Amino acid sequence: MIQLQRQRRRVALRAVVVCFLPLALRCASVAQVTTLSDPGCRQSFTRALAKIMESEGETAQVAQQLAESSALTLQTVDLGPRPFLVASSSGVDYSFFVERKGASCVLRLYGRQKGFVSYTNNLTYIATEPLAPCQCAE
Questions:
Q1: Which of 17, 93, 104, 110 is deepest in the core (most CB within 10 A)?
Q2: Domain boundaries, the chain
């Protein structure tokens, strides 16, 4: 009887490890773009940010203005590697972070909020755009 209980615990433990190990390996590290002063990187960053916000319903003009002001702020103020918020005049707040993927970086939208309605997806993310030729550091 005791032997059977031990065997069941081992099987259950293995099942937990097999099920949750892929999720643990998927954890993203937040990074900081270190080359925003480079014109190519800055253009890539603003294009990616504007593209994501346009896909979320912002007008092209508002998305471009928000992207440019966000890039300027992130270039000017050293916030370190952390998520950042972009607040639109439409009333929507967008939550972004940069992730280092090998030698390159990606921009990820993981949350948005308008009024009391919010949506967060930090497993598969709402939107992702590459930031080539930007460089980033964790």
A1: 110
A2: 28-137
